[in-house]
Structure formats: C-alpha cells, structure tokens
Amino acid sequence: MSQLRLNPLTGRWVTVSTDRAGRPGDVAPRQREVEADPSRPCPFCPGHEEATPPALETYGPGGSWLVRVVPNLYPAFHGGDVLAVDHVGPVFTQARANGIHEVLVLAPEHEGGWADLDDRHAGLLMAAVRDRLEDHARHANVRYTQVIVNHGREAGATLAHPHGQLLGIPFVPGDVAEELAGFVRFGADCLLCTTVEAEVDAAHRVVHADERVVVVAPFWSGAPFELLVVPRTHDPHLARAAPADLDAVGHAVRTVLGKLRRAVGDVAYNLVFHTAPHGFRDESYHWHVHVLPRVTSTAGFEQGTGVLINIIAPELATQRLLATD
Ligand SMILES: [Zn+2]
Ligand SMILES: [Zn+2]
Ligand SMILES: [Zn+2]
C-alpha cells in the first residue's frame, strides 16, 4: 500500500511506496546493464504472458500482439477511493496513494525501443496511450495520468524489455501545475502554438517537422539534446487528438530517437507525455512530449536550486542531430 505525504517546504506530494522496494533490481549499486540477472525470464516477452496480470488491452493483428497494456505488479498508485487528506500532526499531512498504475509493453521484441518501430507500430502505441487516457478519465479519483517511457538504467528502467508506464494519480502534479500556470502567464495566445511558429521561423533548432508535428531542441533547453515534440493542432488533451496527429507524433518520436542514437549512441532517456488533467475545461494547455536524454547527471546545484546548467546549447544539439541524416 502506497502513501502520499505532503512536503510542506515545497507544497508537493511525495509517494512512499515500500512494496516497490521488493522489485528485482531496486536500490542496487550503480551498474550500466539494465538486467542484473539475465537468466530470469523476461515477463514482457511473448510466451510469458502469464508472468503479468491479464492484459487490459492488446493491439496487433489477430492472435499475436504488438502492443500490450497490463496492470503493474508493483503499483505505486492503487485503489478507487477519492483523495482524502489526513492531518496527523502539525507538519504531517498524508493520504492514500489511490489511482492506477499500468505497464505499456511497447513491442514483442526484447531488444531495441521506440527508435526501432515502424510507422504503423508507433501509431498503434500512440493509439494505446490515447485509449488508456480515455479510460483513466472515467475514474473519478484519477485527476491526472502521467505517461512515461524510461529507456536504460540511468533513466530508471529496471527491465530491459522496451516498456512504458501509465500512472493515474489523485492530484495534479507540481510540474504540470507549473506548466498550466506558464500557459496562463503567457496570455491570450497559446504558448506552444507560438513556440512552434517562432521556432519554425528561426529554423535553427528544428529537428523534425511535417504538416502535423514539429520537434525542436527548445530555446530554453535545460539539458543536452532535450527535445520537445509538439503537435501543430492545438488541443489540451492528448485523448482528443485525431488518429493522423497521433500517428505523426509516434513517427516523430521514432525519427528523433533514431537521430539521437546516431548522434550520441544508445543513451538512456525518458519520454514524458504531458496532457491536461482529466476533465480540465480550460482550453489554454497544449499537449506535448518531452524527450529527455540522460547524457549528463545533475548535481548539488541543480538539486538545491532547480536551476539547470546545460553544457550543450540547443542550437549545437540540433546541428549534431541533423548531421546524422
Ligand atoms: Zn523481453
Ligand atoms: Zn496551442
Ligand atoms: Zn511539458
């Protein structure tokens, strides 16, 4: 059972999820390989479907699957109750970590990742993400769903088989609340529609563009090779995106991950899907995907201040990514 605890210094919730410490490979000394014990059968490979709870959804041609969604065996968020906050002391504020935690198996192949998928497969993945977001939105206690892909141990992956996670949580997380405030602060025009227009005009930070999606190394990149994937169609909610836009974003993510691998090698990265909180009526937000490679590590200054020091300017990162074509 997981618990939420409020950090009164930051106003942000922390999830204490002790069951998850039982996962293989957790709290292990630093090592480069994702799997410490390659003899353990992979629970996400075809033929081992019984190693996970029954699938919530599968996608692919009849009989076999290309994409599979299963409940997480070690859920950080679990249960259907709405958020009920208990004050158990002057600075002790807690709640049950209700919600949903699912695994998105990206492909049957044990090796590789999103960079290796064909267009149809990348589109299926985005359709799966869309469907799960729609499902989570029907749960009254789930305020927001975070979709992520962790690739490589430095990015937090504990299993090598390419997979993502969907975490339906009972509150709007701090980073998303900050972005929502950023859109309001920017004013009448949409912050990301304006970003797309301005970056396409400037041209020298555009890594990929077609008629439906633009990928830039944003002007404000906080880390080397950080990328921002923005669909051109304005919509706060990924769950409302048209199939053609989902296909285009899936293809764009595949394309830029391929460029990243050719430019700097098979580095660890996180994909972070940001969409408006479920049921959020304000139309100002614009859904997008962050590609966050882990090519450097953050240290005390960043931890202490939240101020990032980026040692590779996004203009140079763009040049290096485009040079791989
Ligand atoms: Zn596998
Ligand atoms: Zn917009
Ligand atoms: Zn974002």
Biggest sheet character: 10 strands, antiparallel
- The whole-angstrom Rg is 20 Å
The helix count comes to 6
* Residue fraction in strands: 15-25%
Q: Largest beta sheet: what is the strand line-up?
A: 3-4-7-9-8-13-14-12-11-10
Outline type: globular
Number of strands: 14
Q: Provide the structure class.
A: alpha+beta
**Topology pattern, helix = H, strand = E:** EEEEEEEHEEHHEEEHEEHH
- Cα-to-Cα separation, first versus last residue: 48 Å
Listed once per kind, the bound small molecules are:
zinc ion
Query: How confident overall, as mean pLDDT?
Result: 93
Uncertain runs: 27-32
Describe the structure in your own words:
This protein has 325 residues and is an alpha+beta fold. The chain contains six helices and 14 strands. The protein has helices spanning 119-137, 174-186, 191-202, 243-264, 300-305, 314-322; strands spanning 3-7, 12-16, 57-59, 67-71, 85-89, 92-96, 100-105, 144-151, 163-169, 206-209, 213-216, 227-231, 269-274, 288-293. The strands form two sheets. A ten-stranded antiparallel β-sheet has the order 3-4-7-9-8-13-14-12-11-10, sandwiched between helices. A hairpin with a 3-residue loop joins strand 10 (206-209) and strand 11. Helix 1 crosses helix 4 (243-264). It is globular. Residues 27-32 have low confidence and may be disordered.
